[in-house]
Amino acid sequence: MFSWASKNGRKKDPELFQTVSDGLRRLYRTKLFPLEEAYRYHDFHSPALEDADFDNKPMVLLVGQYSTGKTTFIRHLMEQDFPGMRIGPEPTTDSFIAVMHGEQDGLIPGNALVVDPKKPFRKLNAFGNAFLNRFICAQMPNPVLESISIIDTPGILSGEKQRISRGYDFAAVLEWFAERVDRIVLLFDAHKLDISDEFSEVIRALKNHEDKMRVVLNKADQIGTQQLMRVYGALMWSLGKIVNTPEVVRVYIGSFWAQPLLVPDNRKLFEAEEQDLFRDIQSLPRNAALRKLNDLIKRARLAKVQAYIISSLKREMPNMFGKENKKKELIANLGEIYLRIEKEHQISPGDFPKLSKMQEILAGQDFTKFQSIKPKLLEAVEDMLANDIAKLMTLVRQEEASMPSQSVQGGAFEGSMNGPFGHGYGEGAGEGIDELEWIVARDKPTYDEIFYTLSPVNGKVSGAMAKKEMVKSKLPNTVLGKIWKLADVDGDGFLDDDEFALANHLIKVKLEGHELPADLPEHLVPPTKRQQE
Predict the structure, then answer these.
(1) What is the pLDDT of residue 2?
(2) Is 493 helix (H, G, I), strand (E, B) or coil?
(3) 76: buried, middle or exposed (CB in 10 Å: 19+, 13-18, 0-12)?
(4) Number of CB atoms found within 10 A of residue 138's CB
């Protein structure tokens, strides 16, 4: 029945995989796809994967209510307008826009996009013309887009507007994208925290992809610190009611556009949050292969459960009479079938598809055409999970090691990393980096007074004497030990007056909430020690 089954049943040699993408593609085609096809996985859950799904760049999906700054966020990242971009306080973006790299600026309409084998969107044709007329690809040369693609989405409606039908299943389209993207960014406006019914439905549709989800509280510069605390608390409370997980969702607070801050009180907080989010996005190319591997494993687990469900329903069906009544009975008792499969095959309850969704789809299926259980198909997937995936994991690490600097470059990512406007530049241990004078010298007279009360011998104090003074900072011994190691520049086990001053300066840095450097920066080395180095 399947061409792969006629070739002998020997295991594929994982050594033959040249790249992770090549390995994933071949494992999917030879081992997982036959199981999906036999038990109608594509009718129930997700269309079959294509070559472009394994080769495409990491994608970032932006989701949020209208006027939360989704399109502005993309423009901020790229520092450039993109074709088809519209920004305004009203619901302006009425289409899904895939912003991708191209040699020239241009727009590709949805119907042309879904027939392009090089793009990972071919299976979107299942959503029909109502959706495809609202789907375009904006291509442009931009260094950010050389590493990632960004999907802009229509603003989620609220109030009376959400009662108007879009003509396609908006939540289902977002769920399709969520399965294939590497990061989902939910944007909220600090002034509009109400989560509409459509937004709630969308967040629930993304339920199985919490690991990809990041929440951004945008336009936070428009309110003061006290209001920001209240808004943040209200957002966490609202999300807690919809995202039913014990973990708290990570929320990034900031103002993601290139305009002056209206209320600059929280500038440092916004800079730190922006850097955290940028680092997360920059890591996507490096982790893309691992994400695809993870998604294939999730898909394989669901495909196995699908096979058990379909074969169980087939086994229960009568051969001759009463098929329709039996079908209704089986759908009504699907929860009991879940429990039986769970116990029989030791499957976690979290691996089962949503009960109500399965019952709804099963109502339109012909149970007589379902397949009985085929052990060989299941064994192939088990072998893939037990052996081939482990070999691919090794290949993932090898690829990561060979491309250690693979990250998103250009746009807003360039301006925030280096130079005096990089986050944390000239602060903490970096203070005084551009000054000719040794920064520790400013407070050295105070430190010298303490130093000479410790009765130095030959101009130096021992570790035991220095410890008596250093522990007064109440810092843990692990931190004080690191400070001692950094301050003992010549490594003789004693501290002279310069080194003692340096130790106190590093204690001050730590007490002010900054991190200690792994190695002592050049500008902190005492001038008397610089010739020795």
Answers:
(1) 38
(2) coil
(3) middle
(4) 23
